[in-house]
Specification:
single chain; about 210 residues; alpha/beta; about 15% strand
């Protein structure tokens, strides 16, 4: 079977982990080998970078943050993602270049094109076969995170609501610009409804009967 690269994007609390778990079960039940991974943190090196960019207590400048994400991406794509695709696996990844563009390029004000250029270089031009965007109202997303973890927020989750509104708008703008790659799903719907919509859309790509 053909290897595939599928990414899940969306704001905090949109349900990426829940949907990835259900997708993995479905794919594996239908004979596909799945590599579930994330950025940052999909490798041992990435876990150390994740600790810095999400949990560093001191100040991390916006450009340094963006370059740390790019460093994680370069190593992750070369050592995990490309080998899995070459083997014919389905790579199911939580966050990729679109997140860097939305969070660092737009919300941090570093420039979407600058961040996309650096990220594309880091990933050596690898583009997902499909990107699932779980779209959710910012207030609801933050409430979900708070309900799940109390007052424990990472560096990005703790940003003001306006920051997260910018992220959401950036994601929707990218989806509108690339409708052939993006599948936009209303993440406010019940999780099983969201999952069924995603499965129907991905079935032809992963060579599974819907």
């Amino acid at each position: 079977m053909t290897g595939r690269f599928i990414t899940l994007e969306g704001g905090d609390g949109a349900g990426k982990t829940t949907q990835a778990e259900s997708l993995t079960e479905w794919l594996e039940a239908n004979g596909r080998t799945v590599v579930r991974t994330r950025e940052p943190g999909g490798t041992d090196l990435g876990l150390r970078i994740r600790e810095i960019v999400l949990h560093e207590r001191g100040h991390v400048s916006a450009r340094a943050e963006a370059l740390l994400y790019a460093a994680d991406r370069a190593h992750h794509i070369e050592t995990v993602v490309r080998p899995a695709i070459a083997r014919g696996d389905v790579v199911l990844q939580d966050r990729y270049i679109d997140s860097s563009v939305a969070y660092q390029g737009v919300a941090r004000g570093l420039g979407a094109e600058h961040i996309r250029s650096v990220s594309d270089w880091a990933a050596d031009g690898l583009v997902p076969d499909r990107t699932v965007l779980l779209d959710l109202d910012v207030t609801e997303g933050r409430a979900r995170v708070a309900a799940a973890r109390g007052d424990t927020f990472d560096r990005l989750e703790s940003e003001a609501a306006a920051f997260h509104e910018s992220v959401r708008a950036a994601f929707l703008g990218m989806a509108a610009a690339e409708p052939e790659r993006f599948l936009v799903v209303d993440a406010a719907e019940p999780a099983d409804v969201v999952q069924q919509r995603i499965r129907r859309a991905l079935a032809p790509l992963v060579e599974i009967d819907a």
